[in-house]
Amino acid sequence: MSATPGSISGAFAGALERCRTGIEGLDNILSGGVPKGNTVLVAGNVGTGKTTLSLEFLVRGAEVGEKGLFLSVTEASTRLIQNLSTFEFFRQELVHEGRIVFVDVPVLYEKLGLNRDELTSDDIDVFVRTIESLARETGASRVVVDSLTSILYRIRQPERVRDFVLKLSQVLNRNSCTTLLVSEIGGGPGPLSPHGVEEAIVDGVILLGNTRRQGDILRVLQVVKMRGTPHSRAQYVIELTPIGLLMAPHLKGGRSEER
Amino acid sequence: MASTAVADRLRAMAGGSAVALRLRPESYADHYFAALNATLREVGMETQGQTIFVSVTNPASLVWSLAQALDVPAERLSFVDAISHTMMNYRDPLPNATYVESPRMLENIMLRVEYLLRKNPNPRTIVVIDSVNTLAIHNPPDLLSEFFHILLNNLKSRQVLTVLLAVYDETNPDLDQMLSLVVDETIDVSAN
């Protein structure tokens, strides 16, 4: 809906420079967008639209001159671009002209000699520095890592997980990049990230999930945390349409059961 | 002819109005056809006009066949069909329809209307919801009131004329009260 209830823009809007996601409903509930330089966890279980939201964030940015970098861990870039082509808001030229750059992380691991089961502290430093270089070389002001969870499979010690997320957030913030870190979590209540520490370090958390009404499943979105901006904490129903992600208030009249 | 009088009343409404079009059960077929004629053909086919028809009572395919009988071209009419899936009647989807799986998915109905409004921006769009009674079969009253309140306010802010079809004697007092709260005017088809 164009006028999303819960929008509180105006109260503190303008305090920090915004990175407009280009997703109208989301920008409304964030009082104009994500504060520039923030690192945001996009958390949710499978099939809730995390990757699509992140891709639309890059495409909308590229359309207004903000270059994007997509670090893909689990899915080959060619396939992602193929899927993206089904959306009317995407144009192939954005990739051909280098306004959105896709990088396959497994290829990066190989080039850096990091294709081992567990990354050491030194490996983490090399990896973070490489991501920083990529952001600088591409001139990206929007970065997506899809998924953080897959990277963290190789970083098993909690202190190293914390160290990696912190360093990554710091270097990307230093380079004025607004970053989305995709995080895969199970359904139901519990931590918003597999290790339970990621959500404490990042600046924001956008939670995607499913809710049931009389057996029907609705996709929902909620901004749980966002530093530097007032934001709605209400839940919204979303649809991934050919023209982009659309949001409507989640009606409360009926009973629903979290999944 | 009832449809012409109804169409005149609709044309007289200010932009962004919401109207309940009440049909009599004893003359349902005639009144339903008059309502379609008034909305889809007479108002919907005016210059720059288009109709988004939210189909909950009958599948879009049935309404589309009636619209074709009224010479309404496909480019002037889009459907949000929220009943075909539930009726297991989804074999031949219409190219000018978008399908919601269940009439209980009210937010998705809102989002599909939003989708069609954005996809085909048009200064003179009319949204027809067929019908309040059928939505009430599938949804509790408090949820339905919330749905209409949000949807109609959104459409009002975009100057979209909204027509809610409702059959007399098939609405309970709660539903009647809700309708009187959300609409600007009620038109009795039999009185025109």
In CATH, what is the class of chain A?
Alpha Beta
**Structure annotation, total helices of chain B:** 7
Order of strands, widest sheet of chain B: 4-3-2-5-6-1-7
Question: Globular, elongated, flat, extended or rod-shaped: what is the shape of chain B?
Answer: globular
- Low-pLDDT parts of chain A are 2-9
What radius of gyration of chain A results from the CA coordinates? Answer: 18 Å
CATH fold-level name of chain A: Rossmann fold
- Residue windows where pLDDT falls under 50 for at least 5 positions of chain B: none
What is the CA-atom radius of gyration of chain B, in angstroms? 15 Å
Q: Roughly what percent helix of chain A? A: 25-40%
Helix count, DSSP H or I runs of 4 or more residues of chain A: 9
Element order, helices and strands of chain B? HEHEHEEHEHHEHE
Mean pLDDT value of chain B: 92
Largest beta-sheet characterization of chain B: 7 strands, parallel
DSSP strand count of chain A: 12
CATH superfamily of chain A: P-loop containing nucleotide triphosphate hydrolases
- Just name the CATH architecture of chain A: 3-Layer(aba) Sandwich
Oligomer: heterodimer
Helical residues, percent of chain B: 40-55%
